[in-house]
């Protein structure tokens, strides 16, 4: 079974590609998390987790969901992480999580995909995003081949920088940067509720047909990047930047 969490579509695309190639189901963890559904899951022997990289690890809300959920029949687990630049030492934490769940850890693979973290970085325009996705195709095919063959992924890079970013920097980043208080909406908002629908943590609600953010946020960027009128900004950091979600490609 392929399980994916996706903020703006990169992980969903990769997961669908893998699921189709190995003839398995692809399960949307966004909805599982949104509905607080941690009921036992019949997975079969092989489990593939596909996620973006948040602060050099898999998203906390994903690791917390995995920790709470019983995987019936699961024996082996692969992690596939997409990122704009690097995953740090995420593999070490994925291994620990696998051991806690009594899985045979089959490794962590990294795929470079278009950046979506508009709260901090520049997001590529469509032409550049296409180039990045095209370049990722060979990596996706290699990952599929490893999974089909039941082989472990090759160990990713693991230097002092990687261990520092995934280690002490990760909790600091979550504490000081992963907040919703900078989100705001302008007059071009049409009150469609798309942001409410997309938020995996039910952190957004409408008041007088305008979105209001609460304090529970994972910085998936779904609300800002899927807004049909680009009415949402993240303070001044997102002003003038193109929005990105995979479906636009």
UniProtKB/TrEMBL annotation:
The record's annotation in InterPro entries points to: 4Fe4S_Fe-S-bd, 4Fe4S_Fe_S_CS, EFR1-like, Flavodoxin_dom, Flavoprotein-like_sf
Pinpoint the 4Fe-4S ferredoxin-type domain residues: 181-209, 210-237
Check the record and name the PROSITE patterns matching this protein: 4FE4S_FER_1 (PS00198), 4FE4S_FER_2 (PS51379)
Record bears the keyword Iron:
yes
MF terms in GO? iron-sulfur cluster binding; metal ion binding
> A Pfam family this protein belongs to?
Fer4
Keyword Metal-binding included in the entry's annotation? yes
Which keywords accompany this UniProt record? Answer: Iron, Iron-sulfur, Metal-binding
Q: What is this protein called?
A: Flavodoxin
